[in-house]
Structure formats: C-alpha cells, structure tokens
Amino acid sequence: MSKNYNWRIKRKYYNLINKGIKTLEVRVGYPDIKRVREGDTITFKDYSDIRFEVVRITHYNDFPEMLDNENFSKAIPGVTKYKALDMYQKIYPEKKEALGVYVFELRKQTEQLKLYALSSLIGNHKLFSKFAYVSYYATDQICRDYPKHFEWYWGKELPRVINGTGEIIICTIGNNLAGVTFLKKDDTESKLCTLFVSEEYRGKHIASILLEQAFKYLGTTKPLITIADYKLLMFQHIIRKCDWELTQIMPIGYYNNASQELVFNGTLPD
After folding, report:
1. By C-alpha distance, which of 48, 41, 59 is closest to 1?
2. What are the tens digits of pLDDT across the range 143-189?
3. Which helix or strand (DSSP H or E) is residue 12 part of?
4. Are 240 and 214 in contact (CB under 8 A)?
5. Which positions ≥6 away from 20 have C-beta within 8 Å?
6. How far apart are CA 266 and CA 173, in angstroms?
7. Domain 4-108 sits in which CATH superfamily?
8. 113-219 falls under which CATH superfamily?
C-alpha cells in the first residue's frame, strides 16, 4: 500500500523539481527516510500539494560513492562534482553520512489526483448525483459476476451513503475516474464490497490509495471481502500484502453460475 510523505526543501530546489530539472533528491538514512518505498509519493507542502512519485530508490554507503554512480547534475544542477560533495557534507556531517545515503528518483504526477467521499457531497445535489452515476456506470461490468449489482447499488449501497452505514470513495485523475470503492460499515459488518480501478490506471498504485482510505473508514485493514475465484491472481499481491485470510469458499451459484466466491476475513450466510 503506497503512502505519501511530506518533505521540507529550500524553495529554489523545489522549483527545480517542479520544472523537472532536478529529478534526484538525496537524503541520509534517518528512520522516516528508510521507510519510503518505490511507488510512494512525496509532497513539499510548504509550496504546493503536487505529488511526486518515487520511481527509484538507491542506497549508497557515502556521498563519494553516490556521486561516482549518479548523474549528480540531476541532484544539484549547475555545480561541479566536487562542489556537490562539499555541499552535501556540510549539510550532513560525518555521523549523519554514516547513516547511509539514499537517492530518490522522482517523477511529477502531471494530472492531479483527487479523492472524494460521496457522503461529503450530499449537500451538493449536482455533484452527488454525478459521482453516484459515474461510480455505478464504471462498475456496471461486474454484473456478470454479481447479476443483481444494479439492484444492490441503487437499492442498498447508495442508501447506505445517505444514512451513514456505508461510503463510496472515488479517485479521479484530471477529469477521469481512476478508481472507486464501495464500503459497508454497521453494527454487524465492516465490508469492502467493491474495489475497482479503471484499466488505463492499473499498475499506478490507485488500488493502494483507495485501500488506504477504505481502511481508515472501516477501522480495519482486514475487512470482509469476497473475490470471484478467477480474479484471485489479480488480487494476489494485495491479499499477501494485507495478510488477508481465506475463511470461506461459496459454491457456484451463490452469486452467479460461473464462479465460486472466495471469502476473506469473515463469513457469508449460507
């Protein structure tokens, strides 16, 4: 599950990162720096909410080794290698350099990613209706797995958003819907009902972003979730990463006549 981290930086270097001139950010191995993983994002919120994706992380023992192996002009543009070494070692004295040197290659997210909780739009009828329709239309294809999806969405899931026992979280990039998740939370069940990512945005950590929001709403990283058996491979990485437990297998015919339903982190009624 990808995370976003907020870093401080001098404005002149932020401006270079924002323009794509400086694509490497160099830090030493403080605990919070070592937690960052490829696919995570960095913001510099002193200046903007623009996210920069971490596309590569490389660890070196010290600054000389780093400067021998990296294009240092992408880290500190406009200076010589020896000047760059001097600058880094003034910022990070020997004891800090000994923590290890980490190079983060950053890529600007050119289209702004936004998240919406549908319940927050109830007061705006126009936006609420728009996102309610878009969320259904994007997921209409799952009717082959869940033939009663239409009735369930309009008759159960949407009313849950209104009465406070469910939520729909929508992720957009630019003007496009990147993904959506439908959630249920009441006195008896915390369930991740649907997790959908648009095909053109798959492999871009949208699922992780939606899951992070879903877990916050549901109050657990192990909600009840069901997956059609033929989709198991698609979800395998998430299942392993979140340590979900297969707890039940529903027979063909429970939801449809083509696949079994695999149940994780709980049980469904027979």
Report:
1. 41
2. 888 999 999 999 999 999 999 999 999 999 888 899 999 999 999 99
3. helix 11-18
4. no
5. 108
6. 33
7. Hypothetical protein. (2.30.130.30)
8. Gcn5-related N-acetyltransferase (GNAT) (3.40.630.30)
